[in-house]
């Protein structure tokens, strides 16, 4: 059996990603910063006949919480096959570059960038024990510098300073980590799940949660000859699944 950890997995895309990985035969550690919500999410999956899942209290911005989660997972398995950094924060909106307070930038970066780094580094030792380790960072097309400078891109006017730049930083971290691990079996990629109707955007997106989660799962299940250090986006490059950074 293979093991996966998903951050921010008690609802929306993270929860559906857990469901789909369970359906693929994985054992899932469902990360949630609120223990009660994590337990409720796991109870729902158990009720659906998916037993191989358990909650892990995990606040990605809290070093002590991350360390405790690493200890808890390590007591159950010596190998982690998949890490999905799904937890994210949009921050207070709007976010004009000229006037958004630095505190907003720090709050958003703490989850979207530093949290990812902290969790990834904490679980790298377990991932290194896997024959086919996969790291998937859930990002956004709004983090693409190339797309933002293209006036024909449908989201060209959407300039949300803190959130967009945090996802650009996450994309660069993905590239850098993939490069460092290029001589190993690791596949490290960023996935844009698309503009999906979730609590994150007040259910304004046209995409569905199952479709968004399927994109994340696809990257988690990449074959050994699959790509690494890439940005996958069905919305922004439907013919290839990969859009420019």
Describe this structure in words.
This protein has 245 residues and is of the alpha/beta class. The chain has a single domain (3-233), classed as Rossmann fold. 41% of the residues lie in helices and 13% in strands. The chain is built from seven helices and seven strands, in the order E-H-E-H-E-H-E-H-E-H-H-E-H-E. The chain has helices at residues 12-23, 35-47, 63-76, 102-127, 145-148, 161-180, 209-220; strands at residues 3-6, 27-32, 53-57, 82-85, 134-138, 187-192, 231-233. A seven-stranded parallel β-sheet has the order 3-2-1-4-5-6-7, sandwiched between helices. The longest helix has 26 residues, at 102-127. Residues 238-245 have low confidence and may be disordered.
Strand content: 5-15%
Mean pLDDT: 92
Q: How many strand segments?
A: 7
Major sheet summary line: 7 strands, parallel
Model regions low in confidence, pLDDT < 50 over at least 5 residues: 238-245
Structural class: alpha/beta
CATH architecture identity: 3-Layer(aba) Sandwich
Gross geometry? globular
What portion of residues is helical?
40-55%
Tally of DSSP helical segments:
7
User: What oligomeric state is this?
Assistant: single chain
Radius of gyration: 17 Å
**Class, according to the CATH hierarchy?**
Alpha Beta
Tally of discrete structural domains: 1
């Amino acid at each position: 059996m293979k093991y996966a950890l998903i951050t921010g997995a008690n609802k929306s895309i993270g929860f559906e990603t857990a469901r789909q990985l369970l359906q693929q035969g994985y054992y899932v550690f469902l990360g949630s910063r609120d223990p009660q919500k994590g337990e409720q999410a796991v109870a729902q999956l158990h009720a659906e006949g998916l037993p191989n899942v358990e909650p892990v209290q995990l606040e990605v911005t809290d070093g002590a919480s991350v360390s405790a989660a690493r200890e808890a997972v390590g007591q159950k398995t010596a190998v982690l096959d998949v890490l999905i950094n799904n937890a994210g924060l949009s921050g207070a909106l709007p976010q004009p570059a000229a006037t958004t307070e630095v505190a907003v930038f720090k709050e958003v970066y703490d989850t979207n960038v530093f949290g990812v780094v902290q969790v990834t580094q904490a679980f790298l030792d377990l991932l290194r024990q896997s024959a086919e380790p996969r790291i998937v960072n859930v990002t956004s097309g709004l983090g693409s510098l190339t797309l933002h400078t293209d006036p024909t891109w449908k989201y060209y006017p959407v300039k949300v300073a803190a959130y967009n730049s945090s996802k650009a930083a996450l994309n660069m971290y993905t590239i850098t980590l993939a490069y460092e691990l290029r001589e190993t079996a690791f596949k490290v990629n960023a996935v844009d799940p698309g503009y999906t109707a979730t609590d994150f955007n007040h259910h304004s997106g046209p995409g569905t949660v199952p479709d968004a989660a399927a994109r994340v799962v696809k990257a988690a299940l990449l074959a050994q000859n699959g790509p690494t250090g890439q940005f996958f986006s069905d919305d922004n490059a439907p013919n290839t699944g990969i859009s420019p950074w």
